């Protein structure tokens, strides 16, 4: 018997990869995610390879995972993949304190983020547009 299988959230020509609890603020991660949104995957990988941002290597690893999911799990053509979505979500925030003068303290927040990358296979007619 068992539980019914849940419907797939993505369309048939899409695949995704999720990186959870990345140790960077969502605002900084979104700057790097904005670099690759809407671009072809080979161009996006090249941009991440030569980016000077610290988190670019983690974003590149997540994008490579989404490409591998598309190729191996969904039989999509790697050469016609486009980064359809790259969005960032908030995760936990570690709270620490910093000792200040006169016996006071101040709070330091260390935020974490989630990154989701969705790649979509497009036809040759859509690429020209």
Question: Your description of this structure?
Answer:
Keywords: Ribonucleoprotein, Ribosomal protein, RNA-binding, rRNA-binding. One of its GO terms (cellular component) is cytosolic large ribosomal subunit. InterPro entries: Ribosomal_uL22, Ribosomal_uL22_bac/chlpt-type, Ribosomal_uL22_bac/org-type, Ribosomal_uL22_CS, Ribosomal_uL22_sf. Part of the 50S ribosomal subunit. By secondary structure, this protein is of the alpha+beta class. It has a single domain, classed as Alpha-Beta Complex (Ribosomal Protein L22, Chain A), CATH 3.90.470.10. It has a three-stranded antiparallel beta sheet with strand order 1-3-2, with helices on one face. Strand 2 and strand 3 form a beta hairpin. The radius of gyration is 19 Å and the shape is flat. The mean pLDDT is 94.
Secondary structure blueprint with pairings:
Elements: E1 14-22, H1 26-36, H2 41-49, H3 56-72, E2 81-99, E3 105-121, H4 124-128
Antiparallel strand pairs: 1-3, 2-3
Family: Belongs to the universal ribosomal protein uL22 family.
Pfam family, one: Ribosomal_L22
GO cellular component, one term: cytosolic large ribosomal subunit
Order of helices and strands: EHHHEEH
Query: Which CATH top level class fits?
Result: Alpha Beta
Order of strands in the sheet with most strands: 1-3-2
* Number of beta-strand segments: 3
Kindly provide the radius of gyration, computed on alpha-carbon positions and rounded to a whole number of angstroms: 19 Å
What is the CATH superfamily label?
A: Ribosomal protein L22/L17
Q: What average pLDDT do the residues reach? A: 94
What is the SS-derived class?
alpha+beta
Shape: flat
What is the share of helical residues? 25-40%
Number of individual domains:
1
CATH fold field value:
Ribosomal Protein L22, Chain A
Distance between the termini: 48 Å
| Helical run tally | 4
Strand content: 25-35%
| Residue runs with pLDDT of under 50 for 5 or more positions | none
* CATH architecture descriptor: Alpha-Beta Complex
Q: What composes the largest sheet? A: 3 strands, antiparallel
Family: Belongs to the universal ribosomal protein uL22 family.
GO molecular function, one term: structural constituent of ribosome
GO biological process, one term: translation
Organism: Hoeflea olei
